[in-house]
Predict the structure.
Amino acid sequence: MANFTRRDFLKFGFTSAAVAGLGGSLVGCLSPPPESPKKIMRTVRMPSTIASTCLLCPAGCGILGEVHEGRLVKITGNPKHPNNRGKICSRGHAGVNILYDPDRFLYPLKRSGARGEGRWSRISWDQAFEEISKRLTALRRQRKTEALWVEMGTAGSKELLALNFFKAYGSPTIFPDTEFINPNKQIGQAFTWGTESAVLDAAKSRFILNFGANPFENDEQYIGLAQRIIEGQMANAAKLVTFDVRLSNTAAKSHEWFPVKPGTDGMVALAMAQHILEQGLYDKAFLTHWTNFPLPKLFEHLKQYAPEQAEKVSGVKAADIRRLAREFAQTKPAATITGRGVSGHQNGTFNERCIALLNAVVGNIDIPGGCCLPRMMELGTPKLKSPFSTSPQAFAALKEGKAKVEMYFSFMANPAYANPNTAEVLQTLKDEKRIPFLVVADTHLTETGALADFLLPMASYLESWNLETRPAMGLVPFVSIRQPMVPPLGKSMSIGDTFIELARRIGGDLKKAFPYTNSEDFIRKTAEKIPGLSQAGGLEAVKKEGVWFDPGAKPLYRSFEKKGFPTPSGKFEIFSKRLQERGLPALPVYVPIETHQGIKDDELILTVYRANVMTLRLANSKWISEIMHDNPLWINAETARANGLREGDRVRVSSKVGSLILRVRLTYGIHPRVVSLAEGLGHWELGRIARAKKEKSSDSDTALLWWSEEGNGGSPNALIMADFDPVSGGVAWNDTKVTVTKA
């Protein structure tokens, strides 16, 4: 076995010099071939096009990869995909960078020093499988499968084969990472109309009230939703009104923007609902027949939420609340959209229910141009229960001694960087008494991977198999494919093939449950079970087109009229008995945020946002980082001047859990009591580009970085308190109080 350090990760690429020096490089991608000549010789094969699905955000856009001489050279959108319809964002194009990043690690590694010391030994997959399978077998034999904790990143949360493995293994403690999961929104929706997501039929809408969402920059349905909002604006002259603490890209493209006080959106929505009822503009038929709360009692409940009261709480003028309420009720069809600006608070679940009520009051539920129930293809995805909604909740339980872990398996997740209060998370991950065995399966050496006992090199989404489905923007369910555009680099392996081999080694019933030769075999057999797909050509049809849906299917609106809502009552639940049974408010209410009460004059509320090019995992992409590589602190210009700050000044931003030195960006596009930071920067691992380290590698571009580490700023997670919504357990990302002083 060869021993090497973190420095070796950064120093050596897979070049002839590195091979000579190390007896075989331990990291780095295969050296790229020289650029193809512009004049193509007759003997050169024409590029091939392969359809797949992007996994760089939850939207799951259809993509096409252009492969030339065995190398992926370009990624574009798949025009046959019904959601993104041939369009992708800059992240999607930059997937090529992820694939051929010289900082990818491509061989299994085992820790050879103290945890976090950065010393590793290269091992074979056989040794990795042998040691990991022994531990999994022991936990299963001892009936302690719940002591296996599995954190799944965005790229893994929909891995059908992996989820089937965990179900067959014995239901370990499995939970998602924080990158795009929004449990406050999901639970708020589920407790109201029975499903965790919604589809805004924006192309047919004429009025859209946006509470804290930013679909022109980042969203769970991102490109597909942004396209359709623009279509609605162009075809129907749809009005877009945004409530947000920050002038986001979406707020800037809106007809009106209201810099609402953080976490008070629910109060504004309730005041609008109150005025609509008072003016007799409500949908009596829907409220009477399809909700579970008597109309007279709803009138009585909403009396406490007068627009004047909402103005005192939110800062939005009562006259504007009344005017917009009337427009919303009288413009048909209309709908709302919500984002983390609403749900990323301690009262996030309640805020979601308040805004959902506003849709119900005017009857804009599951109608053309309204807020629609999601339509998705049934893929047989296992339903796995967990006591934790996200990784931060799991770490909180571990800290408080309320849970125990024997083996922590992190797949394409990075809690050491992505979770709030990162200093405390790092301390927990380093503690071998709390986490005795840490396995990290990833494409890059992340902040979490640097603390691992075993590092498993994963194939990227461009090198692996899966079937995918997403809420259909056109309301016709579809299935899309993820298939390899190129073979896995080095010794990297897809997560599906990894679990097939682990099942074989564990043996017994688990081996029998996975009689597949590889991931493609599993996906083929899964595709055969999808009604209609077999007749259309099965897996081969999806491989060719990238997506399949019933060509004869049409959008079916008001689907609840046939089946009812997927709630215990079968109706839209204004009154939630499930919340009542937990001792929580059963009706949509505004609950003030405890940490915001009594805020001092020198304190501001920190909020976070996601830029249109960056995610928590993309900072090592050279194309993305060249676009966005610094992270200034947004601060209101008047607030800054009152504190003696000028544009570009260096400041210390401090909370109860940490501090950062940053430069300020003065703007009138933010609430005066709020500061804001982007997510995704401030890495101390992940790779050289993420840390603005200019260095020679197999990619000549890494020696040409022109930006500096100083401008990289930091990750807001170092400042954010690990506070939670008490209903869902989701993180209150936008509630941390900070002070800003000149550095």
